[in-house]
Design brief:
With 163 residues, the protein is an alpha/beta fold. The protein has a single domain, classed as Pyruvate-ferredoxin oxidoreductase, PFOR, domain III (Pyruvate-ferredoxin Oxidoreductase, domain 3). It is built from five helices and six strands; from the N terminus they run βαβββββαααα. The protein has a six-stranded mixed β-sheet, covered by helices on one side. Helix 1 crosses helix 4, helix 3 crosses helix 5 and helix 4 packs antiparallel against helix 5.
């Protein structure tokens, strides 16, 4: 499975990719995570790619995605859309008329602001809702470490149940 997550700096995209990689390993899969971003701390474009496979990953480069998550309009230029991938995007921050009927539009940013929770963890919860990753393993991975554990768990729950 190949997932691309694109948006802007400050949205937690790199951390989300690392967390998904950890979840994939705990699901018993080989994983590879790569990220590219500009020198800006916040606001620059960010792309994180995550690869899960039952076989050893020889090359983590992604030519075709299975899933693409776009969290800001800047992200559209970071991914190569071939037409067979499942695209999930923020309804406001990433709106793109060109893809209006081809995207699973979600209110990630709306819920992030409404509950003052991190957008990346809301997305993680939604990916678990779609059964892309295991919800239980995701929750356990968050509990194992990091900061803001309770906030992150609440955000995952919102993404899983409400978005």
């Amino acid at each position: 499975m190949k997932i691309g997550i694109a948006g802007k700096g400050g949205q937690g995209i790199v951390y989300l990719g690392r967390l998904l990689g950890q979840v994939g390993m705990e699901m018993g899969l080989y994983t590879a995570v790569t990220s590219s971003y500009g020198a800006e701390v916040r606001g620059g474009s960010v792309l994180t790619n995550v690869v899960f496979d039952e076989k050893e990953i020889v090359n983590p480069y992604i030519e075709e995605y299975d899933y693409i998550v776009i969290l800001d309009s800047i992200g559209w230029s970071k991914v190569s859309i071939k037409g067979n991938e499942y695209i999930i995007a923020d309804k406001v921050l990433a709106w793109n008329e060109k893809y209006r009927d081809k995207v699973d539009w979600r209110d990630f940013d709306k819920y992030s602001h409404k509950f003052n929770l991190p957008i990346n963890m809301i997305v993680a919860g939604y990916l678990a809702r779609l059964n892309i990753i295991s919800y239980d393993i995701l929750v356990n991975a968050i509990r194992k470490g990091g900061r803001d554990i309770e906030r992150n768990l609440k955000a995952v729950e919102i993404g899983y149940k409400e978005v």
